């Protein structure tokens, strides 16, 4: 194995060994290297397509315009106009909190975090305004173990299947969105107990970690502090394991960016299988 590949593999072994297996740093250093070709990636992003992209109310319209073609110009190119949080995206702390880090203040490790998935589809199907509770989180932990510190806690609400239809925003007659999310006490508990930590966060297949009817964005304001992120409008959550995976958020790093439209991957170490 080339030296560069060995170094990268050893680094990944330390990351996955310490964070996923609860090993000490010393044990992680002596763990067998993770072969990079044994990592499995699952795509957690919707395709950015103006014909199917639901845009959050008040955000700019999403437009793609072909400005160069191979027959005319020798190359193909599109002009893209969209908000930074259009489609699948990640958000930086400064998106909701003045003085907190923006996209270009974040470290690569802030965008590569261990993840757990909490399936609330049944409750969300019964109540589109469902707010995940502390009891829900504790019940999940009784079954799957403690949420690792500095994790991204992903809600699978079933909204990823509604993408591209009016059922995704689920706007009521009063213009209010009806989407499930975290309750304020649940997110405060995740923060107070260290589960979100300094550089964890939340994920969801809806517009926001907030319940759609809560226009105070209190949950977002709590999540978006320190170096914590929010992954939003996730897709294909069926493929993300309940435990054991990591999430990697890509996308352009705009100067003073509130985040970025992104390709977000689930990264599965050897032995961790997609659901």
UniProtKB/TrEMBL annotation:
Alphabetical list of InterPro entries matching this protein: KFase/CYL (IPR007325), KFase_sf (IPR037175), TAT_signal (IPR006311)
SUPFAM superfamilies: Putative cyclase
Domain of life, per lineage: Bacteria
Signal sequence, renumbered to the chain: 1-27
Residue ranges crossing the lipid bilayer per the database entry: none
Enzyme Commission identifier(s): 3.5.-.-
Gene3D superfamilies named in the record: Putative cyclase
Top-tier EC class: hydrolase
Keyword set, alphabetical order: Hydrolase, Signal
GO MF, one annotated term: hydrolase activity
A Pfam family it matches: Cyclase
UniProt keyword Signal present: yes
Protein name: Cyclase family protein
């Amino acid at each position: 194995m080339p030296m560069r590949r060995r170094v990268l593999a050893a680094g990944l072994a330390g990351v996955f060994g310490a964070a996923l297996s609860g090993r000490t740093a010393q044990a992680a250093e002596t763990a067998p290297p993770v072969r990079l070709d044994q990592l499995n990636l699952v795509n957690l992003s919707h395709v950015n397509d103006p014909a199917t992209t639901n845009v959050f109310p008040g955000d700019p319209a999403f437009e793609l315009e072909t400005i160069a073609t191979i027959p005319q110009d020798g190359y193909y190119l599109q002009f893209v106009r969209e908000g930074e949080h259009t489609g699948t995206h990640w958000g930086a702390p400064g998106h909701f909190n003045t003085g907190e880090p923006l996209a270009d203040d974040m470290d690569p490790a802030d965008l590569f975090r261990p993840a757990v998935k909490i399936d609330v589809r049944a409750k969300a199907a019964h109540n589109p305004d469902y707010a995940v509770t502390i009891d829900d989180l504790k019940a999940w932990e009784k079954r799957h173990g403690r949420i690792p510190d500095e994790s991204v806690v992903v809600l699978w609400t079933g909204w990823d299947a509604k993408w591209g239809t009016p059922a995704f925003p689920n706007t009521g007659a009063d213009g209010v969105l009806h989407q499930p999310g975290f309750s304020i006490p649940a997110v405060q508990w995740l923060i107070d107990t260290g589960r979100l930590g300094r550089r964890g966060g939340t994920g969801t297949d809806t517009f926001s970690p907030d319940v759609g009817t809560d226009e105070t964005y209190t949950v977002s304001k709590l999540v978006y502090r320190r170096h914590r992120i929010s992954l939003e409008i996730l897709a294909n959550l069926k493929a993300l394991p309940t435990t054991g995976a990591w999430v990697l958020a890509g996308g352009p790093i705009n100067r003073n960016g509130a985040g970025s439209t992104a390709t977000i991957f689930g990264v599965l170490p050897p032995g961790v299988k997609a659901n």
